[in-house]
């Protein structure tokens, strides 16, 4: 039986500091049927030179595609659209895959029908001699433990069961993890579309929840990826979701998953939508008055 092709998708932008670690981890996968797809947002450092040097060192196909910068979501989507694989395995330029990551994720996905997403625990790694927010690490290290009634175990579960949890949209809003911690079947994009480019930080959260009504979700109770915290992005992960995303995300979830949610979360979502609608209405009135 032929193994399905997995596209390891690496969106890049000025990632020279850590891209070599990411590439080495992709090339060290025990799963053999892979390709590496890079979508670069006009990097001005040595990112592309480093990637090109690795093309000469491996038989594994490495595609490099250039993308006109228009937001991180657009680059993610561009990377996916260049991929030939049955599965999409994101690997961000700062992160690292454990050698068995792809093999174990594909095995779980292939072991049950209609699995759209597989996620795993992740290890958080740091730059040496750097002091990062220990509270953030404590709160976000074990995302799979932050559900109300779900006891997440190794295996698969209907996505609609996730959506019914009473704490679904409570903090941390993203209980699945960053894209590096996720394997996606290509049919997800045929069914529910691509990442929403109007969002700047919450686009992964919105996507995970958008596909849950249609697919099973798989979980692997192992740290199969390393998520890196460093100066360039530590401030990003510690920031609250931007105001634009806070306003837009509830509206999107209202349209896509409202009727699948627990009543507690339905009420919460309606309150958030109403709140931001009122704020927007108030600001429009203020602007009109100021223009007179």
Describe the model:
Keywords: Transferase. Residues 7-143 form the Glycosyltransferase 2-like domain. One of its GO terms (molecular function) is hexosyltransferase activity. Pfam families: Glycos_transf_2. This is Glycosyltransferase family 2 protein. The chain starts with 5 loop residues before the first strand and ends with a helix. The chain has helices at 19-27, 47-55, 72-82, 101-110, 134-140, 159-163, 187-192, 203-211, 231-238, 243-256, 263-291; strands at residues 6-12, 34-40, 62-66, 87-90, 96-97, 115-126, 155-158, 182-185, 216-229. The protein is of the alpha/beta class. It has a single domain, classed as Spore Coat Polysaccharide Biosynthesis Protein SpsA, Chain A (Alpha-Beta Complex). The radius of gyration is 20 Å and the shape is globular. Helix 1 links the parallel strand 1 and strand 2 (34-40). Strands 1, 2, 3, 4, 5, 6, 7, 8 and 9 form a nine-stranded mixed sheet that branches. Helix 10 (243-256) crosses helix 11 (263-291). The mean pLDDT is 89.
CATH topology category name = Spore Coat Polysaccharide Biosynthesis Protein SpsA, Chain A
Architecture, CATH level 2? Answer: Alpha-Beta Complex
CATH homologous superfamily identity? Spore Coat Polysaccharide Biosynthesis Protein SpsA, Chain A
Radius of gyration, in angstroms, nearest whole number: 20 Å
What is the C-level CATH assignment? Alpha Beta
> What is the N-to-C order of secondary-structure elements (H for helix, E for strand)?
EHEHEHEEHEHEHEHHEHHH
Estimate what percentage of residues fall within beta strands.
15-25%
The overall strand count is 9
The helical percent reads 40-55%
Total helices: the number is 11
Low-confidence stretches: none
End-to-end C-alpha gap: 72 Å
The chain-level structural class is: alpha/beta
Largest sheet: 9 strands, mixed
Overall geometry: globular
Keywords: Transferase
GO molecular function: hexosyltransferase activity
Protein name: Glycosyltransferase family 2 protein
Pfam family, one: Glycos_transf_2
